[in-house]
Inverse folding.
């Protein structure tokens, strides 16, 4: 099993974003998690703290998570880019996005041994598995990839943009509920299939 490359991400100098960042931002959470929440890139607060989703969008996300799943809910949270793009504008750094994906995305996924569902938060993450779809087309879509389910949800920051609103919360909550249910169903299926006895063969 691959180990999550926290130290390597923290000291990464593979693209020009290392020159403008305060801190690189590796993922955080439980490496035993069945669910990966994948955002876009660190913003100002994440850059200052070196942790993903600790700013306004992160607080909204935590709020939605606690409503959907009031108990202890384990997840791993990460971004496609691990360094803040200047002015938070990811469109200006497509080369860095590509480098970051090539270096870290699969390693991050492979370091979660129990991973069952990836919830993409926003178009940057969604377009990895749902290319060529626009934001309004992709939200709510699901597909199976390498034995995992990928779900496309809006980014929590949409809530604060023009056109944002309650629908953003509702869509994220729906994606998280589905992710939880899929994990529960798979656990049930695994329990059941390990207790099934082989069918008795009857001779006639
Ligand atoms: N937006 C993101 O996509 N990721 C963060 O970590 C914070 C805001």
């Amino acid at each position: 099993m691959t180990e999550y490359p926290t130290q390597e991400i923290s000291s990464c100098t593979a693209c020009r974003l290392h020159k403008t960042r305060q801190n690189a931002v590796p993922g955080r959470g439980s490496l035993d998690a069945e669910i990966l929440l994948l955002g876009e890139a660190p913003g100002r607060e994440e850059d200052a703290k070196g942790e993903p989703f600790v700013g306004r969008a992160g607080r909204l996300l935590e709020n939605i998570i606690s409503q959907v799943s009031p108990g202890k809910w384990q997840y791993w949270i990460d971004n496609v880019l691990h360094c803040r793009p200047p002015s938070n504008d990811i469109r200006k750094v497509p080369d860095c996005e590509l480098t970051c994906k090539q270096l870290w995305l699969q390693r991050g996924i492979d370091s979660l041994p129990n991973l069952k569902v990836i919830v993409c938060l926003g178009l940057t993450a969604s377009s990895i598995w749902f290319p060529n779809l626009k934001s309004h087309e992709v939200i709510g879509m699901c597909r199976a990839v390498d034995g995992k389910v990928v779900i496309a949800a809006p980014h929590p920051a949409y809530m604060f943009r023009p056109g944002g609103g309650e629908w953003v919360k509702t869509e994220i909550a729906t994606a998280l509920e589905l992710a939880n249910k899929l994990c529960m169903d798979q656990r049930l299926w695994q329990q059941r299939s390990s207790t099934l006895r082989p069918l008795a063969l009857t001779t006639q």
Remarks:
- The chain has a mean pLDDT of 94.
- The chain has one domain: 6-203.
- Strands lie at 28-29, 35-39, 76-79, 117-121, 142-145, 148-153.
- Residues 39-43, 46, 52-53, 55, 57-58, 79, 157 surround uracil (CB under 6 Å).
